[in-house]
């Protein structure tokens, strides 16, 4: 494929062309082979942020100092270019190098970006982020964005902490806080193309090796910031033809190259649930944090054993304020028909419910949410008052009370089977699989189609102890335990 040359329109630099190309050859042999006369220069490393991959590049016009293009990156330039993507017959990924007066712009077909993204990883943390965002009660969590240490950290300056680490007990809302921080950072990045945001979620039910986490982070970078295409292309070139996958240290090396390339003024990584990874993965992730030039926001239960491994981390406690718990209770009451009907004309009783749940939950979203699940079976004011009087305190008491309710209801045997399958299955069980698992007769160990029960009914029978979550592999069921973070 030949290099497409551009004549600049009238401008400050006239129409003279130059061979003064930006260096992309370092660590990118495959890319360099497709571009003519790319000479490595020290000064070009500083200008690396001027290299852009244009999404939707077919027929793009750069004019009047504005690039009109669908994508994250934009180019401000005083000259006029028309860009056409050239395709090879064999489908090889070969970006066009657009040669201008004083810059070389690399242009890749969106299909090539997608091809490399799919090659990198199957894991998509964005689905989990969207699910977590949907779980957050409107108006909650903003206290963390108002913390002085967060405001300093988010500036991305060298004076502030490089690692901001929030710790909290199970059910304190750590995952929701991480999701809110991602949203906040992405809003900043939307208005600042030189700010980069990537994130990952760890779950004890779906252990993900560090290598796969790094690959998924690179995929995010490529999809959201196509300007990193040359780095990923070089990695692809070294492995694709040999039919081998990049090793952990190779993926880490690419991340290090990107974060030190000058493409971004600030790079933010958000990692939720570090405590839910195995001890070996925790250690590897801590080592990764120490080696990447970026700012990190972490959440976990208190992990005292790793404090000395992150000496530059600033720690803070995640505990839901009373106002957030109250908002959660109010919203959940509105979604429980029987409870909403009982309280809609009885503000005094409603205030009692909110106060009792607030007091007994001790700042834990998880416990407050499950308390409301326990109260949804109250159909009269008398039932509600009696339940409030005997509302258990703490997570252990809440579990005991919930199991008593499950055992006393119609369909208790189905609920206990569902809980057993979700608890002891060798791998996380899918929502669609649960009815078939429960339909296996415990006495004969044979599948009985007449025992099939709708999955939504089974989840409901478990009184909030089973939750449906989307993850990189699909809709899976999760047992609510002290390991669960929300």
From TrEMBL:
Look up keyword Repeat and say if it applies.
Answer: yes
Please report the stretch or stretches of sequence annotated as the Nephrocystin 3-like N-terminal domain: 139-301
- Report TM segments: none
What are the start and end residues of every segment in region (Disordered)? 1-33
User: Which keywords has UniProt assigned to this entry?
Assistant: Repeat
Under the heading InterPro entries, the entry gives:
NPHP3-like_N (IPR056884), P-loop_NTPase (IPR027417)
The coiled-coil regions, if any, are none
Q: Which Gene3D superfamilies match?
A: P-loop containing nucleotide triphosphate hydrolases (3.40.50.300)
Which Pfam family, an example, fits this chain? NPHP3_N
- Repeat listed as a keyword: yes
UniProt protein name: Nephrocystin 3-like N-terminal domain-containing protein
Q: Whose protein is this, by species?
A: Coprinopsis marcescibilis
**What is the organism lineage in this UniProt record?**
Eukaryota, Fungi, Dikarya, Basidiomycota, Agaricomycotina
